[in-house]
Amino acid sequence: MGCSSCSTVKDGQPRGCKNNGTCGTDGCNKLTVFDWLANMSLPNGEKPFDCVEVRFKNSRKEFFRVPEDISLSIGDVVATQAKSGHDVGIVTLMGELVRIQMKKKKVAYDDSELPKIYRKATQKDIDKWQKCRGKEDEIKKRAREMAILLRLQMKISDVEFQGDGSKATFYYTADDRVDFRQLIKDMAKAFGIRIEMRQIGYRQEAQRLGGIGSCGRELCCSTWLTDFRSVSTSAARYQQLSLNPQKLAGQCGKLKCCLNYELDMYLEALKDFPSQDSKLYTEKGTAFCQKTDIFKGLLWFSYKDEPSHWHTLTKDQVQEIIQKNQAKEKVASLEMYATDNVEREATLFENPAGQDSLTRFDRPKNNNRRKKNKKRRRNPSKSSKKNA
């Protein structure tokens, strides 16, 4: 998902596109934050915020305190404190925006136990880090084979090595609780490192792995979406979408998060809109709603005996008929209301090429042959003499 402007250089340092902490295409950083305070200087006497945001593999981000003797900038590779040993990550955000992000994620910035940054990563740290990252795919494959042999109902989706290579975290998804004690023993014996198992949900799995959605863009959960709200099928019903699980489900197998994006607008438009279950009683018969257009304010009704013949009514007309039906009064027919909604548009034919002719660039035809043939027909004696 990376772009050419943010690729790494020879020494392993990220090049960076110098776009205030975010890539111009949003393709290489996940859940990136645009630093709109980057070009603003601090007031006199104010010290810069002493915490930074560091991103590790995929979407994992943590906050660290920076010692006073270390000068950092966005894009630096740093060695950070871990439970045992050290980890290696990339600085993604600095300044006052880090304070806002910590408050948003409910992390106390005045906590004395907040992990610290040891130093800027040396070339030795970077080489060891990249070497561990290169082994992750092979170890993930072997771990999946071990889980299959033990017949564990789980899926190992991702493996993340610690920066010093002493520990590996295995992320897995499962429907029920899994007893993986024997799996940890086998993996620790085979790989010679400390093992940590961490269960994540299906949406978190899609967030970590990333991918391309049906819209053709990168997944929202891996680029900017931070909170996963519950999505129900009623969101699709309000938007009049077909309840097809294959189209409504995302890469994670759950309902797409984008179903909630426009839901509030639909609910606002449906406040003064008649229900689709409403029935209209006329002297000609009972009519049922077949289709609605929320934003045009139109409804299509058909009689019970004529389900294929639809009549177009506005929402005001439908509400008027409903009020009359509630007063135990029937209208004559739907045609009396539907005729007012028929718009006859005159068909206008225009020249798509403007005032110019489509054949203005064609070569003029040569009519000399036709003239010669006409002369020969008029004077057949001259042509016979020439042949003789």
Could you walk me through the main structural features you see in this protein, from its secondary elements to its overall organization?
By secondary structure, the chain is α+β, with helices and mostly antiparallel strands. It folds into four domains: 117 residues, no CATH class; 71 residues, 2-Layer Sandwich (GMP Synthetase, Chain A, domain 3), CATH 3.30.300.20; 43 residues, no CATH class; 63 residues, no CATH class. The chain contains 13 helices and twelve strands. The strands form three sheets. Strands 2-1-4-3-5 form a five-stranded antiparallel sheet. A four-stranded antiparallel sheet has the order 9-10-11-12. It has a three-stranded mixed sheet with strand order 6-7-8, with helices on both faces. Helix 3 packs across helix 4. It starts with 50 loop residues before the first strand and ends with a helix. About 3% of the residues have low confidence. This is PSP1 C-terminal domain-containing protein. One of its GO terms (cellular component) is cytoplasm. InterPro entries: PSP1-like, PSP1_C.
Explain the layout of strands and helices.
Elements: E1 51-55, E2 61-65, E3 77-81, E4 86-93, H1 96-104, E5 117-120, H2 123-134, H3 136-149, E6 155-161, E7 167-173, H4 181-191, E8 194-199, H5 202-209, H6 220-223, H7 233-238, H8 245-248, H9 263-269, E9 279-281, E10 286-293, E11 298-303, E12 311-314, H10 315-326, H11 335-338, H12 368-378, H13 380-387
Parallel strand pairs: 7-8
Antiparallel strand pairs: 1-2, 1-4, 3-4, 3-5, 6-7, 9-10, 10-11, 11-12
